[in-house]
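lol ok so funny story. i was supposed to be doing the assay writeup but got distracted and ended up predicting the structure for this chain instead. priorities right. anyway since i did it might as well share w the group, maybe its usefull for someone
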Amino acid sequence: MSTKRDYYEVLGVARDADGATIKSAYRKLAIKHHPDRNPGDKEAEEYFKEAAEAYAVLSDGEKRARYDRFGHQGVGGAAGSPFGGGFDPSAFGDFADILGDLFGFGGARRRGGRAPSRGADLRYDLTITFEEAAFGVEKTLKIPRLERCDECDGSGSAGDKAPEPCSACGGRGQVRFNQGFFTVARTCPQCHGEGTVISEPCDTCRGEGRVERARTIEVKIPAGVDMGARLRLQSEGEHGRHGGPPGDLYVVMRVQPHETFRREGPHVLSEIEVTYAQAVLGAAIEVETLHGTKTVEVPPGTEPGQQFKLRGEGIQRIDGHGRGDHLVFAKLAIPRPSELDDERVELLRQLAELEGRPVRESMIERVKKMFH
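and the output, tada:
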């Protein structure tokens, strides 16, 4: 890279980019070209340095103003300088913020230790019936989880023996080594970042500080929950390490399908069978709902698929603001030939003649002709 590139080009941002955009662009390039990800790749290391130099200038309002006006010369950018003159070593102070702990940066500023850590969140898939989802229900759940060991009170050590500082990292929880022009910190492989080691592990938890137990809890499922709904139960997850707070338990609903009803949010959908005569002349038909039997007035001239609304006969809205509706759809009932006797066949044939629409000879009539 003998020819210095434009800093905006290096980061791939517009000249009017704001600070957040510049920071985000630099972070992506730093992660991509970091020597830790590209061991032995000199070209990647040069790109990494180039991106750091560009960020050091463009993230500083005063330096950026000079650069925008005078170019590389405005920030002392002499080609051939190891860092191009525009590089400010203090830019590495942002690495803990920009790169986080992805590559172990910032380890020199903090010491490791058996600090309390929050426990993991847990998930429990609960299967309930259609009616239980509609009206609510109380369930007893048995949740296996890691809980604080009573024998060692979560320390992981047997008796009163306290954990000892790790000899590999000196209690920092990280080991550092030189790579290229800077120092890289990584999690200590001996203590796994704890900073201490247990010389005499607890017999009950084997040094973990936690043991697995099954906890029984009562859960109240509110009326109106739907498929995939989640209930968060605070502090019912796994216990944290070294006395850390427990995580949460998320109960995820799995609602069984109903034999008759379907659901769209708070609304219930179903069908009613309407005969040809009822569809033409009208009728009052009883319909089963979640809240009992209701009557639907089918007007004359009803067509298949026509919708009838029973207001407030659906499911309780989860926010408590009333119930949805029950939507009933008309379905034309066509009798099977085996369900028709001679009288009905004759009446249907006469109706067809009155309508001027001939029908096929019935099976009954064909059978009668065979024996006459």
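The first strand starts at residue 122 and ends at 128. DSSP finds nine helices and 15 strands in the chain.
back to the writeup now i swear
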